[in-house]
Specification:
Blueprint: H1 2-21, H2 23-44, H3 56-76, H4 81-109, H5 116-139, H6 145-170, E1 174-176, E2 180-184, H7 185-209, H8 216-243, H9 259-283
Antiparallel strand pairs: 1-2
Amino acid sequence: MKQRVISGVIIFILAVALGLIGGIPLAAVLAVCSMIGFYEMTRVLQVHGKEERFNVLEVTGEVWAALYWGLLVYLSMKDNTDRFVSEANSLALLCIFGVFFVNMGIYVFTFPKYEASQVIGSVFAFLYIPIMISCIYRSIFLPAGRFVYALIFFCSWICDTCAWAVGRLCGRHKMAPVLSPKKTVEGAIGGIAGSTALCAGAAAVVRMLYPGTDFMAEFIIIGIAGSIISMTGDLAASAIKRNHNIKDYGKIIPGHGGIMDRFDSIIFTAPAIYYLGVLLLTILR
């Protein structure tokens, strides 16, 4: 428990510091996390066999992840922030198709070395980890970007903390009794309420710092939707572990496990909040 608390505090401090710094340091840390997380997921999905440490399908995914992050940083260094949002979206789609077509080519031209499930697993892992994690970095380039970045953590870590506290206090009705017996409906409501309240507080700070800018309604919508999706992400990662009879995705973070064990809800929350931000803060305003 002590290790878990210490690791959690260090990760929290890093998340705040990197959010304030932004730029290449943030991108570099997220890129490394995404590449480690990609390997954790492909290992669990048995993209490589028990006798292998990795195979060409995973190497392809890691190379594409490195290429994706390099191009993403290059695009973000340009002066035009508005263009970056659309260019980053196009780049993500291009890389997803790139991984799919290259891995399908490997599957076809080395047949029957690999199973279709291995190819599907490698493409799924690339979408699930590097692409979705990158939305944390991309969120900073939206209007009030540092605050949108903060909302990702409000709707995952704060939601989880509030859900745990309310669940312990008055939880009665099980939310997912088979998958996660300790999670309750009351806890979920408390988690949504707590994180949404912080999102509303962030909107109030934005209004004070930038007079004439009012994102209150947008941040509340993002808070509610992001909190619900974060719980789904947490349960989804647990379901994958249950399906493959493992306790943790890895051992890289003391007291927590792997990258996927610590960032399971954030990985789901980041793209949801990012694309809600694109819709509510740019397209519809």
